[in-house]
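Q: How would the structure tokens look for this protein?
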Amino acid sequence: MNKLKKIILASIMTVTIPLAFMGCLPNQDPKQVASTFMDSLKQYNIAKPLGLMDTAEKNDNSKSSNGDLTKINFQDETTNNYLKALLKNLDYEIISQEKDGNSAKIKAKVTSVDMDAVNKILMQQMKMQQAATKGKGAVTKANVSKEQSAKQMQQAITKIMESKDVPKKTEEVTIQLTKVKSEWKIEPTDQLMTIIFGKMNNKQ
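A: Here is the predicted structure in token form.
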């Protein structure tokens, strides 16, 4: 399943959208910026949160290893549906705010899809499907391309996330912000992006 998770996350993080929207967003205090970021993700208004992120290259390991959110391709319907289903389950609660000069930390409780549980459901469904089609001339893996297989997996996961019983997790996260040219920008840390996107495991 790690390979599948990597393929799905790669498709999520390879989106291309115009960056022209990024310079015209209201930017007040760190708490408001964090709230706008999360609300916009929930509403699937991706241009706004991208404009609130600090996407500058850094020499440390603070930036998310999940990929570059400034490059997302919404032309793929399967990926679009996956993201909508994922982000509509996102919720949050701001707990506290700390400011220190040009840095700020927002503590928040974030609720998102529990991808570990979703993948267990998916595996159970696949086993049941294999058992039901065994010996009935079902399409074999050899007849399905890697791209088709990944798309089918993504569609199956989307269906699970669209159900009212989708498993979720609530965790505490520190949203880090930096003041860049008088505007507060959110640092896309691995902790933040992983929690938002359902605690997906990106390990090889």
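The two ends are 10 Å apart (CA to CA).

Residues 13-26, 200-204 have pLDDT under 50 and may be disordered.

Upvote if useful.
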